[in-house]
Amino acid sequence: AAALFESGLLAGKRVVITAGPTREALDPVRYISNHSSGKMGYALAAAAVAAGARTTLISGPVTLPVPDHVAFHPVESARDMLAACLDQVAECDIFIACAAVADYRPAQVQGQKIKKGAEEISLPLVRNPDIVATIAAVEKPPFTVGFAAETQDVLAYARDKMQRKHLDMIVANDVSEQGIGFNSEENAVTILHESGQRTLARATKFNIAREILEEIARVYREN
Ligand code: CTP
Ligand code: CA
């Protein structure tokens, strides 16, 4: 595998990767977010560079160092992330959506800090745009890869997501298993595409990232 990478598996290809969580503001000091560490997306970015790709990383707030030779675009909200992705899509061969995008955001952002009062309050939320589905629906879409975080019926839900969002490939993640996936060092995934699937046994996120990029490069070339 290492030799494949050093030979420039993705030489000259333009790869755009989303990573990390998004933050959805509630007021000037508060937000809704999730526990995504960004590790899988950052590992993909480092592996894409190693494979010779011109790599852009569009990332929500995380505490990781940006890999060398990556064009870095930090964002906060899902809507910011979508705008940054649309800015890049015309110059993108392969789009990989690894971010844990918040599905909902507060319906209104209060201009001032919300003051404590009632014993109970409720918070109306509205749906965020679907970034990867939007990218897959542009006039000339890149080869588009999604991730699917599932706790049950992992492969069935993942395949359904791939079809509904018109993705070329989806990486299915069983987030019910301890010590893999969300916010951990290791991962184990199954890669699904139109004409096949491949399971990658538990390994470090960097090794999983390399294998995902190998599979992407293989299917991309056949497309
Ligand atoms: N995704 C996205 N924009 C969103 C939500 C998700 O681009 N607003 C992308 C993720 O980056 C991932 C894929 O869609 O590549 C699947 O994300 P996931 O949360 O597993 O699926 P959802 O479609 O949001 O469905 P649900 O959370 O209800 O399972
Ligand atoms: Ca979701």
Automatic annotation (TrEMBL):
GO terms for molecular function: FMN binding; metal ion binding; phosphopantothenate--cysteine ligase activity; phosphopantothenoylcysteine decarboxylase activity. It comes from the Bacteria. CTP binds at residues 103, 113, 129-132, 147, 161, 165. Pathway: Cofactor biosynthesis; coenzyme A biosynthesis; CoA from (R)-pantothenate: step 2/5; Cofactor biosynthesis; coenzyme A biosynthesis; CoA from (R)-pantothenate: step 3/5. The keyword Lyase applies. Residues 10-218 form the DNA/pantothenate metabolism flavoprotein C-terminal domain. The keyword Metal-binding applies. Its cofactor is FMN; Mg(2+). GO terms for cellular component: phosphopantothenoylcysteine decarboxylase complex. One of its GO terms (biological process) is pantothenate catabolic process. It catalyses: N-[(R)-4-phosphopantothenoyl]-L-cysteine + H(+) = (R)-4'-phosphopantetheine + CO2; (R)-4'-phosphopantothenate + L-cysteine + CTP = N-[(R)-4-phosphopantothenoyl]-L-cysteine + CMP + diphosphate + H(+). Binds 1 FMN per subunit. Keywords: Decarboxylase, Flavoprotein, FMN, Ligase, Lyase, Magnesium, Metal-binding, Multifunctional enzyme. Its EC number is 4.1.1.36, 6.3.2.5. Residues 15-223 are annotated as: Phosphopantothenate--cysteine ligase. In the C-terminal section; belongs to the PPC synthetase family. In the N-terminal section; belongs to the HFCD (homo-oligomeric flavin containing Cys decarboxylase) superfamily. Catalyzes two sequential steps in the biosynthesis of coenzyme A. In the first step cysteine is conjugated to 4'-phosphopantothenate to form 4-phosphopantothenoylcysteine. In the second step the latter compound is decarboxylated to form 4'-phosphopantotheine. Catalyzes two steps in the biosynthesis of coenzyme A. In the first step cysteine is conjugated to 4'-phosphopantothenate to form 4-phosphopantothenoylcysteine, in the latter compound is decarboxylated to form 4'-phosphopantotheine. This is Coenzyme A biosynthesis bifunctional protein CoaBC. The chain holds residues 177 to 399 of 399 of the full protein.
